[in-house]
Each structure stands twice: as structure tokens, then as C-alpha cells.
Amino acid sequence: MSLNTAQRLDRLKTRLAELPMWRERAAVPIADWRFEDQPIALGDGWPHRNAPVKFTASAQVPADWPLEETILRMDVGGESLLSLNYADGSVKRFGLDPYHREFPVTGRAFAIETQSVPRLPFGEPVRKPVLTEGRLIRLETELDDLHLLLTQVAETVEVLGEHEVVPHLLTAAEATLRSLVWPSATADYVARTAPLEQQQRIWELPELKADPAGLDDEHRASIRAAHAALTEALRELQKRYPPQGDIVMTGHAHIDLAWLWPYGETRRKVRRTFHTALGLMERSEDFRFNQSTAAYYDQLERDDPAALEAIKARVKAGTWETIGGMWVEPDTNMPTGESLSRQILYGQLYFERTFGVRHTVCWLPDCFGFSGALPQLLRQGGIENFFTIKVNWNETDRFPYDLFWWEGLDGSRVLAHTFDNPIEGYNGIVRPSTYLHTWQNFRGKTRHDTTLLAVGYGDGGGGVNPEMVRRAEQLRDFPALPQARWGKVEDFFAAAHASAEKVGLPTWSGEIYLELHRATLTTQSHVKRSHRHAERALITAEALGSLAALLGGAQPQSLEKLWHPVLKNEFHDILPGSGIREINAEAKAELEEVIEAAGAEQAAALDRIAGQLPKGDVRDAIVVVNPSLSERPVRFTLEDGSQIASDGVVPPLGIAVLDHAKIAPMAGLVVATDRLENAHIRAEIGADGTITSLIHKDSGREALSDRGNQLWVYTHDKPRNWDAWDMDEDYAEVGVELTEVESVDVVEAGPHRGAIRIVKRFRDSRVVQTYALTANGRRLDVETEIDWHDRRTFLRALTPVAVRSDFATFECAYGVVRRSTHTNTSWDQARYEVPAHRFADLSEPDFGLAVLNNAKYGHSARGNVLGLSLMRSPIYPDPLADEGEQRFTYALMPHAGDWAAGGVREEAEDLNQPLLATRASGLAAGVVTPVGVTGMTAALSGLKPSEDGKGLVLRVYEPRGARGEFGFSLPDGWANRGAVTLLEEPQDRNAPVDLMPFEVRSWRLGKA
How far from the centroid of its chain's Cα atoms is residue 927's Cα? Predict the structure, then answer.
């Protein structure tokens, strides 16, 4: 009787299962363990869980064991950095985790030491950790290799299905097993096979022999012969059925900087993972490993300088690939353009300084969507290529390309690649199914004959294990499967570029929106607010210090060290709010420290500016500085908290000296419990606390089609997956509008500012909103204080606009993106929550309304309703997300014309960074402009010290998609030294005008 393929495969797997029972030729337990300073026996629980803890022991390899056949097998009950200290003074270190339990030994006597935590790779606590295993094992290495080879044959048969090579593979495997001479003595056989699953199901096993015999020389000889015959059979089959497809494989360990564990644990994960990779390189000349994130290497300089030196040697040898060119793998939806620029600047500078290399590949496998600003910034940072996996996570629409040109807002292009490995994605495991499915899913194969594949346990780190390296070596001989080889990511992209030049590639233009994880734009709002303010505080501090230098002060120092914690906390599980409570508390604390330090830099720079202004007779002078390229109305806050809103403007990057005694408020401010009005707008407040009317007085237009600033709480914000990450499309099916008002009070009655405070409650939570209007204001501010104590709820503000448009405009890094307000296609329907920076706008050609904010990122535009997401309160992985008090401000701004003509961006700048003011005496009233600008409208990205300490760098961008001439003038003694890139090196540029649409340009300024 002949069996079918499935039956033969089942038989093969059954017979394979017993081979590992003879894997251990001999074993010696390691005794005399100590936990910290006290004895502990194998099988004992840890005396405490106050990690990290130290286990120690000593080991002696039996004299008759060949070292190449000896391994150390360990399980201490958690993750560890394992150190083997040999008598000759050498030390070998490895990561110890569930995927890395067996380690080579290189000497007969050694001391064992671990740094251990009672956690598993994804941060799960081991509640009752136990010192489970510590043994020296003499392996039947040839049997181990044969078993793995046969396992891969079985896996190949399974994945190839109906392929005509399958019967041949089964025949070869069956012949291999039949050729083995195998033990059969009853007592030894029963004891050896007792661990098999079927044997463990027996009612009662017989008494087992304590030390069953293993293989003898005849058995081993048959194993060697069988292995050789099977390998030869595979090679012959490969000639008949050659490999289909080509894969460049890179070893990888995606180490989240902080996620389900705090940053302190990441520092240990980095050491463990890096030592594991270094150890594999000692045993395999072919193995290649990549690791991004300059911050990891920077921390390693302090934590383990010897490891960093070993990595430097491997980088020089070409086996370890530092990659990415950025400080961390950041979220790209929420950071400002200047932050993204600094990710590249400080990343590339660090890699060049430490390893002598710059990177040409941006490596962002796990971010939640990608800003259209990135391609231009990458190109200016010397990076021509982009890699991610996350586009494959779309839950509605399949992203159409996997090898393509990604074109940014300004038209800059980078070569982009993503592979679709359905088995663990970028945490690939080396096996036949991974190879086959990754190649089958590669749609770019008609244009380029190779795809990339990253393998190695990740998210929690760990990386490649020895079995993966062995599997890759064996699979080279297999028929029909794609050919895979270890290689470098940069080499893959270099070859892809060559193909692109010959055959052309499709182009994806603009942002890459992820149809998943939309709630990361809102979750952990307090971290997002601190991040926004820290960014702005640093940008402003640098601008003020630079203005002081242009007025004759000293060269300001680089603030790189203050930028590092900001860049760190832009990591794609910190800023998005998808981590545990501990990392959010740490992030907020670090960002608040930056805000404080940057504030001190600002105050010192303001004093330096005031000290260099023309002297005069104004005794009570106020020095007002405009840190933007937009003309600003005179509106600022004094140190005592009092508000000023008067006639006049402060020019771009200008400094105005005002006589405090002569400042008068702009006329026309009216304040009542139900109305705020000035010369520009009139807002009427209803009994339910919403805005019942918002009139743009210059045009006479009503901006609202219904009540504005409706507060809705959605009480069934319970996504089917990924609680902190996601919001399901039906979140709004169950909502409660907050219409009950506890109190309404006029809290400021002018003359510079008027304000009405409204208090509302929802269950155990409280919302206090203050509508505020300055005497010269063109926007109605909604200053919001929340004290939230309700779980699984989602708070949003909705404003119906008296405008009809099929698109809304949202600010993004270095520009804007237009998105549809309709749901014509599945792509439109999927964008029910989208990112924006400081504003979202809905306009007709001659009129519109914008929602501005100083701390929010989640927006929506459906029909004529603009929505702003204020906060969420998921329970995983932080049960107390957004619990307690928060403060932020958003605003409604009606305007004539579209968003650009109406000055929406300029007003959003003012909300996020008001004019700065300081008191002085003995100055002359007037205006000083250290940098004078001419030509078209441009926005300031940064005015900063150059990183070499020899001058300044001015960076601007075109914010609205226009082109034209732009110029600037400098004070006597200063000169424009020419255009530079983000890396502050001379820039070659070929363009018809000074600024092209959405272009970012930088110039070096130096002493003449």
C-alpha cells in the first residue's frame, strides 16, 4: 500500500521526534550556585525579585570531553547577561533568554556570572522565578546536525505543498532514516524516549534507568553517512529544481528603546543582544548583523566600552552593519521638521564620529506611518534609501508596492523597500516557510531579482540564535526554495538602485498613512504636550542665543545634549503612548527637565540681547523678541502673568523695545458671560458651554454651521486589538455630549484680554474650559484643564464649519497635507483619524475656519466637521493612561481666504510660541532686526549654533507649496557663507528660484 504525501510527512515527523532523545551524549549538573551572597540550589525559587540580581557558580568540563562538543545550558528564571570568566582572564558574554539557552565553552574551567531580571523578552513578569537549569552537556553534534537537516526537509515538504520536488524530498528523508543504525536495548531505549509526548501520556511508566546508554561508534558512523547522503541528494535535487528567488538576509534584533519595560531594562537588553551577535560572528564568517539607533551605541560607551570596541572592529570588517543614520527609530507623524532634522544630524554625526561611517539607509521597520517630509530630509542627510515593514499592517487597503520610489512633499525621492514576511515580520525566523512566503509576496521581483529579509528575535531584543545560522547554512543546498545569503542592507539597496536605473520603478507620492494604530496620535497626551513644549523651548532658545550673537554677543554653544532626551523620547513607543506607565512617567520628567533647562537658556539669551540694544531714556522698557519669520502682533505675557495686546507688530526675527508706560490695549474688547468680541471676531457662548456663533467681522461671515466646540465622550472606546494603539471605526457609535454646565464665570474682563470659564463634569471626571480672546486676537482660545478619572473613554471636540470643501488641510512637518472630507473610497474611509501638527483647516476659496492647538495630534475632517482628539484612557499597557490632570490650549480661527491667505500658520505659531518679553532699563524705544528677510513667505525651522562652533545656521522652509525668491540680510560683521545641507556641509542645488514648494533650505552664517 502506498501512502499519500500527507501521510508520508506525518510518518517522517513521528520518526524524527525520537532523534533528539539521544542528543545528549553526557551531562554534568553545575552545583554550588549562589544568588547574590547566599547559596541557592537548582530548582529553588529566587529569594527576592529586586532585579537585577547576580547568580554565580563555577564549572569544570570533564577531561575526556572535546570542547567543540561541549555546551553550557542555562535557565535561571528570567533574562540575563551571562558572563563566562576563564582562567586565562578572557571573558565571553551572551544574552540568556528563552531563545538563547545554550552556549559554547572555550576552556575547561570557568566561572559563571549572570546579571538577571525576572522578566521575559516582552517585559512579562516571572512571578515566581526559579533557578531551573545549569548543566554542561556533551552533544552528539553530528546527530544534532542531522536532526536539524531532516527537520528542514519536513518543513520544506510542508510549505511546498504540491510542488513536484516534494516526493523526491520525502524519499530522500525516508532513505536517510532507514539507513541509520539505531539503539534498541529495552532499558536504555525506554529511558531515553520517556520525554516524548506520547510516552508522557502513559498511565504509569516503568522504572526508568538513571543513566541510559547513548550512541556508540557504529551508530555515529551511520549518522555521518546518512548526513552525507542526504546532503548529496539535496544538492542533486537542487540541480533539477534550482532555487526560485533570491533573498539578502540580515541578522537583526528590533530592540524597542522602551515599550513593555522601562529604559533601564533596555540598557541591559542592548548589552545582552549585542554580546549574542558578537558571539555568533566568532563562530560564523558568513553571519551579518545590523543594528540601528545611535543612542544605543552612545549608551554602550558608558555601560560596556569593551563591547563597543569589539563592535567597532566588526564594523570595520564589514560583518556588523550600523544603520539608520538617526538618533533613535522615531515616530515620524508627531515630531516637528526640526526634530526630524536633528534625528538625522545627530545620528549621522555620531555614527561618523564613532565608527567612521555615514549611513545611506533609513531603517524604520516599526513606525506608525511616515511623514511626507522625510524623503527630503533623508536626502539632505546623505540618506538615499528607506526601509520599513509597517506598511504591510494596513487593515483595510493593501499598500500597492514593496520596491518603489517614495516622493516627498517637495518632490525629493528615496528608494523604498518593504518585505512581506508573514511569519513574524521583521523578527523573522530562518525556516523554509519564511524564505518561500517572503519571496512569493515580493511584488517587485519583475523589476529587481532580490528582496530583503531581516531575521532574529526582536521587539524585546535577543536577535539571531545559533540555530538560525545553522539553518541558513543547510538551506543553501535545498531545491526549489529561494536562495538566501547573509548580506548588508546597504549593498542590497545599491543593487536595487542599479535595477531602478534600468527598468524604472513605481512612485508613491506624499505621506504613507498607516491604516492602524490611529490612537497613538492621542494616547498619553501629557507626554505629547511635554514633547511639543520641549521641542519649541529648544528651538526658541537656540534662536534667541543666535540673535544675541548677531547683535555682537559671544558664539552660542550647541544644545545637542539637551536635544538628546527629546530625540530619545520621540521613539515610536514613547511619543505614541504605546508603552507602560513607567516609561511615560520617565519621559515626562525628562522632557520637563529639558523645558526648564531651555527656559534658562532663553532667559540668559534675552538678557544678552537686552544688554546689546541701543541705549536710551526708556526707564521701564519691555524688550519683545519675535522668534519666528512671521510678522507678529504685539501680544505677550509679562513675568507677573499680566497680558499685553496692543496695536503694532514685531517684524520677523525682530526685537522691539517698548515703553511700558505708553503701551495701550487695542480698542474694542467686549466681555460678558455669553459673549467675547473684539475688532476681528465675535463669539457667542450658549448655555451648554458650546460656541453658538463665531462671526468673522471683516467678512461678516458666520464660521459655524452648528454649535462649535462640542465636547463628546465616547464610552465604548474598546478596540479589538492593541488597546493603547488603536481606535476602531465604530468608536463614535456610543457617545455622550457634555452639555451640563456647573458654572459660568467671567474671569478676565480686559482691557488686554477677556476670558469666560466654564466647568463641566463627566462621571468621575472634570473639564474646565476658559474661552479667551485678546484685544487684538484673531482666534478664540479654548484653554482646557482636565482632571480625568474614567477608564476606556475617549474625549473629542467637534466643530461643524459653515464651509463646503472636499478636502481639509492639515499641518505636517515642513508643510501641509490635504486629505479628503468624503468617504468615496476605502482609502478615504480608512482615514477617520489622521495626524496634524499645529492646525487643521477647512476652507472655501474665500473663507474658512481652522482649529489650532498647542499639544494635540489626532484630528478628523468628515464632511464639514473638524474634530480634535483631546485624550483617551485605555488600560493596556498602562492601566492609568491619562489619569489625572492635564492642561492644553486649542483655538478656533475664522479667516478670509484659504488657510495660507488667512494667516492660519502664523497664528498657530503664535499659539505655540508667543513673543518673548523681558524687562529692562535705559534703552531706546524702537525696533531692531538682526536678520532682515525679503521675498516670499517662508517659515523658520531653526536659527542655531553650527555644530562645529564656527558661526550659525539659518534654516527655513516653504510652508504652503509655492515657489519664489527669498533673501535675508545680516548685521555688519556677519556674512552668508553659503547654502548647507542638514549635516551643515556645502549644498549643491539646481533650482530656478530661491525656494521651491515645501523646500527646506539652510545657510551657514559666519563672521565677516
Answer: 43
3-state secondary structure 165-233: CHHHHHHHHHHHHHCCCCCCCHHHHHHHHCCCHHHHCCCCCCCCCCCCCCCCHHHHHHHHHHHHHHHHH
Q: What is the pLDDT of residues 429-488, one digit of tens each?
A: 999 999 999 999 999 999 999 999 999 999 988 999 999 999 999 999 999 999 999 999
Q: If you search the block for the grid coordinates 499592517, which residue do you land on? A: 393
**Beta pairing partners, 621:** 659, 920
Q: Are 34 and 56 in contact (CB under 8 A)?
A: yes
**Distance (Å, whole) CA 365 – CA 524:** 23
The C-alpha cell 472636499 sits at 806
Q: How many Cα neighbours within 13 Å face the side chain of 939?
A: 29
Looking at the chain, the whole-number percentage of residues with pLDDT higher than 90 is 99
Residue pLDDT, tens place only, 929-945:
999 999 999 999 999 99
Distance (Å, whole) CA 101 – CA 71: 10
Sign of CA dihedral 314, 316, 318, 324: positive
| Distance of alpha carbon 697 from alpha carbon 706, whole angstroms | 18
> 529566587: which residue's cell?
46
In 3D, which of 315, 918, 363, 995 has the Cα closest to residue 658?
Answer: 918
Contact (Cβ atoms closer than 8 angstroms) between residue 418 and residue 451:
no
User: At a CB cut-off of 8 Å and minimum separation 6, what does 13 contact?
Assistant: 154
Q: Which residues contact 180 (CB under 8 A, 6 or more apart)?
A: 219, 222, 223, 226
Which helix (H) or strand (E) segment holds residue 535: the answer is helix 525-550
| Nearest alpha carbon to residue 335 among 367, 361, 379 | 367
∠ CA 787-789-794, nearest 5°, is 90
Once rounded to an integer, what is the mean pLDDT over residues 223-251? 98
- Please tell me the distance from the alpha carbon of residue 107 to that of residue 72, in angstroms, as a whole number: 12
> Looking up cell 550659525, which residue turns up?
952
Establish whether 366 is a catalytic residue.
yes
For residue 921, is it left (φ>0), alpha (ψ between -120 and 50) or beta? beta
pLDDT at residue 1 tops 80: no
DSSP letter for 883, please. -
Residues 383 and 362: beta-carbon distance below 8 Å: yes
| From 97, 144, 304, 366, active-site residue | 366
Question: How open is the CA angle 532-805-850, to the nearest 5 degrees?
Answer: 30
Single pTM value for the model:
0.97
Instruction: Tell me what the pLDDT averaged over the chain comes to.
Output: 97
Residues 6+ apart with CB under 8 A from 42: 29, 30, 31, 33, 131, 132, 133, 134
Query: Is the Cβ–Cβ distance between 315 and 321 less than 8 Å?
Result: yes
